[in-house]
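Below is a filled-in request sheet from our internal design queue. Each sheet records the structural input a requester submitted and the sequence that came back. We keep these sheets so that new team members can see what a complete request looks like end to end.

REQUESTER: design group, bay 2
PRIORITY: normal
MODE: inverse folding
CHAIN LENGTH: 257
BACKBONE (tokenized):
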């Protein structure tokens, strides 16, 4: 019996409803087949340990969806990566089957134009091993003004997008950008001045730079009692220093390192 047999119908129905709404019935049926195959492969990695406990030993999973067609790859990215759909379904399957999920569990969705089959899955380090630490001297953002899901955000990636929506789509509902720091739309006046794709922070050779992505209300850095405007669309942006306050419209983040 499948580990997920008690839950797969519910998960399938949810995935089908969502993909039918987003991409139409024909595409939904094809996507559902791939979705099921991915869950089945992950099921095979579940381990039974002492006292019959079930555990999934990998905190990081990377699913690469394969197609030579660029439009199909965009569809895969939107269907499986959009709203972290695949990660949510995998987590729900594991937890619903009383399977332990490692701390910091994450599923990353990628696409490729070449490779064997419809998808490939790569697994991260075992949950029993020491997790990979962030780079030495890594920075973080502390939320000063405006409502977000977290009070602070570690800068563990080379690029951190900041905006007012979790993800942005084009006219064909394809994901074109995901924000890592999201100010909740309609939550307060400060969040309302943050554009949907407001700014990003880029790490280069240990330095962090803030760049404005053409926001409506602008980006500025407050440092040592003076305000520094960050020019919209300038790829160089402004180098950040510890203690800088970053104003995105009226919302504010403090950079620490």
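RETURNED SEQUENCE:
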């Amino acid at each position: 019996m499948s580990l997920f047999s008690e839950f797969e119908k519910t998960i399938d129905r949810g995935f089908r409803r969502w993909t039918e709404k987003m991409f139409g019935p024909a595409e939904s049926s094809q996507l559902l087949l791939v979705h099921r195959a991915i869950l089945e492969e992950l099921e095979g990695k579940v381990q039974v340990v002492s006292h019959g406990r079930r555990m999934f030993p990998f905190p990081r999973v990377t699913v690469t969806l394969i197609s030579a067609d660029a439009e199909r790859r965009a569809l895969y990215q939107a269907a499986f990566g959009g709203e972290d759909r695949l990660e949510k379904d995998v987590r729900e399957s594991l937890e619903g089957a009383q399977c332990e999920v490692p701390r910091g569990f994450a599923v990353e969705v990628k696409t490729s134009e070449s490779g064997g089959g419809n998808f490939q899955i790569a697994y991260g380090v075992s949950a029993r091993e020491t997790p990979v630490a962030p780079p030495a001297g890594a920075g973080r953002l502390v939320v000063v003004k405006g409502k977000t899901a977290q009070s602070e955000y570690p800068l563990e990636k080379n690029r951190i997008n900041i905006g007012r929506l979790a993800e942005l789509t084009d006219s064909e509902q394809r994901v074109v950008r995901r924000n890592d720091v999201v100010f909740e739309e309609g939550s307060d006046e400060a969040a309302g001045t943050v554009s949907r794709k407001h700014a990003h922070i880029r790490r280069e050779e240990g330095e962090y730079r803030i760049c404005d992505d053409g926001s409506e209300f602008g980006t500025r850095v407050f440092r040592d009692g003076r305000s520094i405007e960050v020019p919209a669309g300038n790829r160089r942006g402004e180098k950040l220093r510890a203690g800088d306050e970053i104003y995105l419209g009226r919302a504010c983040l403090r950079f620490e390192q």
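SHEET NOTES:
- Confidence is low (pLDDT under 50) at residues 126-133.
- The chain has two domains: 8-123, 140-256.
FILED BY: M.R.
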